[in-house]
Amino acid sequence: MRRPLLALIGSIFRRGAFLGCVGLALAAPLGAASATAASVTSSTFLVSGRGWGHGVGMSQYGALGFANAGWMHERILAHFYSGTSLGPAPVAQVRVLVAESKPALTISSKAPYRIRDVFGTTHFLPAGPLVLGPRLEPVLNGVPTPLAGPLVVLPGRAPLELGQPAPGIGYRGRLEVAVAGAKLNAINVVGLEDYLAGVVPREMPASWSVEALKAQAVAARSYALAHRVRDRTFDLYADVRSQVYGGIASEDARATAAIRATAGRVLLHGGTIVDALFHSTSGGRTVSAAEAFGTAVPYLVGVADPHSSLSPVNRWGPTAVTDATVRKGLGIASPVLGLQLVRAGSGRVRSGTVTTTAGPRIVTGGALRTGLGLRSTWITALASLTLTRPAGSVVYGRGVTVRADAKGVGGAVLFQRSGGAWTQVAARPAAGTIAFTTKVLAPTSFRLSAGAVAGPVLEVPVAPLVALAPTESGLEGTVTPASPGTAVQLQFLEGDYWTPAGGSVLDDLGGFRIDAELAPGTYRARVAPAAGFAAGLSRQLRIE
Q: Is the dihedral of CA 163, 165, 168, 173 positive or negative?
């Protein structure tokens, strides 16, 4: 007479092996004798700092503060750009790349305008849109007419507009259209002062003090001319590769007045236009180009910036940076375990060492700022919250220990969630480690927080408890918790690989039965993922 299934399973688990008369024995998990349990880690770094931007040259909030204190723009500029003087700009016109590699361009105007080909022939156009493709065949007098490029589109009594659908972005000056490969580029040839009118309000609020706006106008004019592109058909980009240029839509009368008041004036050092770098907020002191970029520039040295305190981001943080952000931003594939900083004389970060499961990775302070999305390299505090658990799924009803490490914080709280709200399960009043062990009955997550900052979340997958035992005609088993209808696959070990050897589905009570004549070897049952649970595996059975 066959023994009841539950009694037989109990006997197996108590004795650790099948009775010899059955001809079966328990086999250890594959590779268990030499394997070391790996772990899964989730980290969040809490970063606090000062300032916004690279910190070199003029601090815009600093300029505002000095202007509010009665400084004229000449004095503001002399403070931030040491040893410089004001002089005349050598050019009055710039070429700005406003559209790049476009399949087609639409240019329009609210007044009649003109188009000129490379030979100087001019054609008159009525108000409205002009569509150009790479073949440069505008519709003239109702007929598509090929023209030799590059083409020049000249405004009439209204500015030209570029964009689809029309009207697009309005630009002062003229537009040049050239074919590049099978695409089109559009270049706005515009007066230097009109160009600045579309730049300065994008860089500094037009509501700020007029002397601060004047300082910004001179800095932007100098920066533009110092950064002209060489050996190209244009001088400047319309984006952050040069300065953000928004055309007529960006203009503001207050900024335009400041530009006109400083018209044609640039910063010079030794007779050369300076690279007038500027940024939002220094954090209290600007930094030298030598420290920030590795190359000394005589007029870009660190100076006191007491009015940086006007900025809402003069001091910032703590900012939560997840390990996923670190990996993506720095191009790191392995889990991140820690971060160490090397500071320069100013207190800003010169470099950082990112510790990963694959080893250390050293990055520059600038790369760290960009990759982690930080406001600056002036990091004043770095803390970390880390959760660690054993790798793999936890079997239903068994325990799991989660390690929570809090460094550089005043305290930490560990929360757990299993399908509902977060519940506090442990806490530390100071930095340190929490080791929390709990029995899991459902897929669960843990979160480590410090103050108002929600730190890392670590998910713990839970697999059902799968019991497998022999019968007179094959194998049968139970799965807890039960999810009726879930597929069960019997697997046979061939060499180093598990291959299908039969299948079944769970009944309403979580049981399954596989009737088969079994060849000698090692078997196990695999239950498919269901109802939020991971795939479940039985212990291995060896049939002799």
A: positive
Domain 5-34+464-543, CATH among 1.10.10, 2.60.40, 3.10.450, 1.20.1640: 2.60.40
**Could you check whether the bond before residue 520 is cis, i.e. omega within 30 degrees of 0?**
no
Average model confidence (pLDDT) for the chain?
A: 91
- The pLDDT value given to residue 419: 83
The secondary structure of residue 534, as a DSSP letter, is: P
Of the candidates 462, 471, 385, the one whose C-alpha atom is nearest the C-alpha of residue 428 is 385
Q: What's the token pair of residue 135?
A: 């073949």
Side by side, the strands of the sheet bearing 432-439 are 315-322, 39-50, 379-390, 399-407, 432-439
Among 454, 444, 469, which residue's Cα sits nearest to residue 409?
454
Domain ranges (residues) in the chain: 5-34+464-543, 37-51+315-463, 85-273
Give me the pLDDT at residue 35, please: 38
Which amino acid is residue 18, in one-letter code? F
**Mean pLDDT throughout 398-407?**
95
Q: Give the CA distances from residue 176 to residues 152, 154, 192, 220, 382, in Å, rounded to whole numbers and listed in that order.
A: 4, 9, 17, 24, 51
The pLDDT confidence band at residue 168, using thresholds 50, 70 and 90, is: confident
| 460 contact partners, CB below 8 Å, separation of at least 6 | 389, 394, 400, 402, 440, 443, 444, 445, 446
**CATH architecture for residues 37-51+315-463:** Sandwich (2.60)
Mean pLDDT for the stretch of residues 17-35:
31
Cβ(294)–Cβ(56) below 8 Å: no
C-alpha angle 174-175-180 in degrees, rounded to nearest 5: 155
Do 5-34+464-543 and 37-51+315-463 show the same overall fold?
yes
Q: What is the 3-state secondary structure (H, E, C) of 143-187?
A: EECCCCCCEEEECCCCCEEECCCCCCEEECCEEEEEEECCEEEEE
